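Shape is hard to put into words, and the shape of a protein is harder than most. The fold becomes a row of whole numbers, each drawn from a learned catalogue of backbone shapes. The outcome of that step, for a single protein, is printed below.
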Amino acid sequence: MPVSLPFPNPASPPPAGESPGTPLWHSLPAGKRELVVQAAVEEFASHGYEGASLNTVVRQAGISKGSLFTYFPSKAVLFDALVRLAAGGIREDLRALRDRTRQESFAQRLEALVRTGLDFLEQRPQLARIWFRVLPGSQVPLGRRQVEALRRRSRDFLEELIREGQERGELRGDLEAGRLAFLLNLHLEALLNAWQERDQQLEVEPGPGREELVRDFLALTLRGMAHQPEGAA
């Protein structure tokens, strides 16, 4: 699972290279597009890809099934469009986070990334379920390719942050930045997945709160990466 950030406004133009939906879809009023997107997100999140009903989507959105097919020719295309919209928003937010925190330390930038991911899970729980529960088990190749592309983007983003931290002497220079980014991305995905599933886990045993989770994740991660002066224990 890629690093997950806020879902973009479906009324906004698609990012460069992204074109979910037909030209007729993009000509719709913003409010109508929002209704369709929200109805589709709710249905896929609640019932998974195979179990999702387009009849429910059109009923909730207040449109006809024929209209939906003029916007998205198939169920797979509609599902892929949701993934593409989310992926585009994630890329935009990664760029904004990178630029906004450029003058901050690596530790501060990593904390900002972790908190943004957790904010997404809390603010967009239905979309989070699509990423974590629906996509891994679906057989929709277009959506899965978007996830893999986003994973690469996330690793590249982390590698850039790590290299800058190494250049400033904040992080160990003897560790290869690309491998660190790969491992760190895996750990971050696991953290977000665990937090997304916390409601089920809490039925079995109490888990850590958000602030404790952030604190411990950062402490564990940064301890092994931090630069140590020569002769330090």
